[in-house]
From TrEMBL:
This is GNAT family N-acetyltransferase. It comes from Bacteriovorax antarcticus. Pfam families: Acetyltransf_3. It comes from the Bacteria. PANTHER family: GNAT FAMILY, PUTATIVE (AFU_ORTHOLOGUE AFUA_3G00765)-RELATED-RELATED. Residues 13-177 form the N-acetyltransferase domain.
Length: 189
């Protein structure tokens, strides 16, 4: 099959186009309240039994490589299992990116590692001048991934999430210029 989006390898990860064969592991790790509670209220909870297949068939497949780019995250040590995903899209809502990792894979630096080549691809190949990110106020894990990539928090706005306790979102901006500065500073660390 021809790839609609490029695959990337990092030190510990393989990022590649999601296939039908990835859906069982997608379901296994994504359908977990600890993961879904932090997402926009447009994601249903309780999560429908066919929700992952619906998202794959109606959102990922038709848009993949067009105005949306969705990578499955795999460990090099266990490449057949999807452990998370990074989703990038052209039209800001206001954000351009979403991501999640299976809960048992948190706290190992995998998402920070995964977003690096995707940010590079967005700026260098897809022509983004800036990327807008968003997370629930209080989602410190997601916030840290942004901070460590050189993004700046620009706004707190009202927003609804799956967890009804979360009522505000942080908006972050990463300009291409700031990302290049951030990368060059990392080289000197
Ligand atoms: C958001 C989410 C992907 C972040 O996961 P995470 O595991 O905290 O992020 P990373 O994989 O980048 O891991 C970072 C942590 O691993 C730790 N770590 C351990 N070993 C590491 C290593 N070898 N390299 C780098 N970091 C390492 C770091 O200390 C770091 O924490 P810190 O930044 O506070 O110091 C995850 O919490 C998640 O899926 N949440 C639910 C869905 C969600 O919130 N999505 C985002 C909506 S906006």
């Amino acid at each position: 099959m021809t790839e609609k989006i490029p695959s990337f390898q990092t030190e510990r990860l393989i990022l590649k186009e999601i296939q039908v064969s990835d859906l069982p592991s997608y379901k296994k790790y994504f359908v977990n309240y600890a993961v879904i509670s932090q997402l926009s209220a447009s994601v249903p909870w309780p999560y429908p039994a066919d929700g992952v297949e619906w998202f794959f068939n109606n959102v990922i497949l038709p848009k993949q490589g067009n105005d949306r780019w969705v990578w499955g995250i795999h460990l090099k040590d266990n490449p057949n299992e999807l452990i998370g995903a990074v989703d990038l899209w052209r039209q800001g809502t206001p954000e351009h990116r979403g991501f999640w990792l299976g809960e048992e894979f948190w706290g190992k630096g995998y998402m920070t590692e995964a977003v690096e080549p995707i940010t590079e691809y967005a700026f260098n190949e897809l022509g983004f001048d800036e990327l807008i990110f968003s997370n629930a106020l209080g989602n410190t894990k997601s916030r840290r991934v942004k901070e460590k990539a050189g993004a700046t928090m620009i706004e707190i706005r009202p927003c609804l999430f799956v967890d009804p306790v979360l009522t505000q979102a942080e908006t972050w901006q990463l300009t291409k210029e700031n990302w290049l500065i951030h990368k060059s500073l990392l080289l000197f660390k």
